[in-house]
Amino acid sequence: MTDEKFIRVGTTLYKIVNQPRLNGGYVKRRIVWNNETLRQDYGKDYIGTVPKYDGFCTVPDHVNYQPIIGKFLNLYEPIEHKPQKGDFPNIQSLVQHIFGEQYDLGMDYLQLLYLQPVQKLPILLLVSEERNTGKSTFLNFLKAIFQNNVTFNTNEDFRSQFNSDWAGKLLIVVDEVLLNRREDSERLKNLSTTLSYKVEAKGKDRDEITFFAKFVLCSNNEYLPVIIDTGETRYWVRKINQLKNDDTNFLQRLKNEIPAFLEYLQHRKLTTEKVSRMWFNPKQTETPALRKIIRSNRNKLEIEVAELIKEIMESVGIDFFSFCLNDLLNLLVASQVKAEKYWVRKIVTEYWKLPPAPNGLTYTTYQVDYTNQCRYSSFKRVGRFYTITKKQLEEL
Questions:
Q1: In principle, which of 27, 49, 122, 377 could form an S-S bond with 369, CB 3.0–4.6 Å?
Q2: Residue 49 phi/psi, 5° resolution?
Q3: Domain boundaries defined on the chain
Q4: How far is CA 60 from CA 63, 68, 76, 188, 367, in A?
Q5: Residues 6 or more apart from 126 whose CB is under 8 A from it?
Q6: For 89-286, which CATH class?
Q7: In the prediction, which pLDDT does 324 show?
Q8: Is the pLDDT of residue 90 over 50?
Q9: Res. 203: pLDDT tops 50
Q10: How many CB atoms sit inside 10 A of residue 26's CB?
Q11: 297-308 as b/e, with b when 16 or more CB fall inside 10 Å?
């Protein structure tokens, strides 16, 4: 009899194989197989011995894992570590390095990943312009703990419509993240809080599953790795300092300590209680690194708008500029600056705190005139316009 394993799920036959990985080791895969091929290879009676299941399910559990639930095959992978008492000084050192003054919160985060894998958690973003900071080591440490339930994605993987290879994972990690498009940011935020998700694979129908994946992102860009708006509470951004020494065996020592670390997490008392959908109070995970990104996202367009208005004032010799939001959007497009209306409104009403005219009144504004040496020509329009003076602009 063969050592090879086959299963039937629903009406589809699969062969279980160990696929070699580029960096060593193997990853378990299910390959759709052919009934006739199985019959040719092992005889007509063999197919009757193949285990049969009604379908797949995804039920994450690291302590009391069940490979089969009812008549359904669990797609979530077990982790092989057996918790045992011991010390874990290297893991403590890494957690201290990554989370700094938020060490206890970091331990809570790891404990929740292990004991409450379905719990939503903040998007963890590790940033540093310096090299050799241990960001990638932390990602590899998470992979070592949760094994096949962690997937490394690229920016392109994240943007792809085909997501069947990462939709059922515990952690989706992206090293060298650069998701600086508005649609990237919105997708990331939605995925971090959604309870269900449409899984799509090439050549297959979309299927809705429970979505419990958490995101861990790393970036060398401390200013604009992702778009984060003012008031956003879904991100936990940590600025990571450079390591004092470079130890090539550090990851292996971390791996050796995982059983002791998991034993500790099983019996450790959480220092926080659930106060939001992402467990933590947003004030607890707010950091200077987060505020830096928010300021950078705001300032980029705000500076463009301010410089554009200043240029118009100087070009046509006026001390104040009146406009509606669409006027400003058209000017930005003409200057090849991509902007969305709600962002422009946010700058005008929230950051600059300009009040609109009480009623729809006639006002004079300016638009690009490519036939005029002056470049800007005046137009009379009617609307609830805003007005900013040269003095206000200078103060801003």
A1: 377
A2: -95, -5
A3: 5-74, 89-286, 295-395
A4: 10, 12, 6, 21, 57
A5: 98, 135, 138, 216, 217, 218, 219, 237, 238, 240
A6: alpha beta
A7: 92
A8: yes
A9: no
A10: 10
A11: bbeebbebbbeb
